[in-house]
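User: What would this chain look like folded?
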Amino acid sequence: MATIKQLNSYKNIIIKIGSSLIVDESGSIREEWLNSLVQDIANLKKNSKNVIIVTSGAIALGKNILNLKKNEKLKLDMAQGTAAVGQIELISSIKKAFSEKNIKVAQLLLTIEDTERRRRYLNARNTISMLIDNGVIPIINENDTVATSEIRYGDNDRLAARVTTMTSFDCLIILSDVDGIYTLPPDHSNAVHIPEIKNITKEIQNMAKNTQNDYGSGGMVTKIEAARISMEGGANMIIADGKVHNPIKSIIDGARISHFIAKTTPHLARKKWISGMLTPNGRIFIDQGAKTALINGNSLLPAGIISAEGNFERGDAVVICDDNNNEIARGLSAYSIRDTLDIKGKSTPEIENILGYRGRTALVHRDDLVISDIGDYVE
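Assistant: Here's the prediction, encoded as structure tokens.
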């Protein structure tokens, strides 16, 4: 019953699907399994859950279409081409399954740079947020068609964890070919299942012995790394058996899982990252009206800006000060300093005419902003 309560408490859930779950031994989509997962997700949406899917499988499907051996090692250009062929098959099958439930989906292909470079990170985060707000389920895969070995995650466990922290989602479910982490390999007679983990210790890392399958690039080691990334970002993570039909329902019904528990929340972890982990590249000075709006939990609009200084670009961290040079907040700017100076003091409808493009309504969105310890001078 604890599992039901824990899963029901999550509002925003990312589900990661491994290649060996969605692609069968012949290199084709497991349609019945996929349909059962889609039914589970439809039920989550009926219960007002937001869902993102991170899926593998493009290369596995591409190999089958191109008549390549599933265990064949591919050179970079061949792997990229194979992924391009397989990605069409993958997203087409997923779209078809969701269409039968009248659920819209969108495809996003990301590289490591999209989740680590702040400008691209901000673009990806905003795109995903727009899709979620419009009832669309983002289907995310690594962009194997352009990523080289130097800029690849190499497995979608860590990609899923980065997406979890980037979107501030509160739960990552990794559907695997095992039902969690064990003290020894699961087929060992003395193996003990670990249902809950609150710290990634050396002992836990040592338990993460790589599992082998025909398609997947990640084993338990990558899942433990995904758990570490998720927990640092304030999200909990579940490793569950994904081989069964209706795997999410199975979790809700009390199937055995390993549950990684974070010490903070995504909201607090993100605020800590913005306020303490990023080096500000500039300062923005605001009027009293904007100051009051920020303290009341609103975004920073161009109309309230008096001036700006520094050398910041879109996505960079900035310090926000009042007209007495007191620090009010820190946040991520949606505009460069050049554009900020051009639109300072202007109303939102004027932005497009001034800059020549339709930018963000807020210069610093409230989700990308942390109020500082402003003390007694707050009026």
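The longest helix spans residues 76-99. If you want, I can go into more detail on any region.
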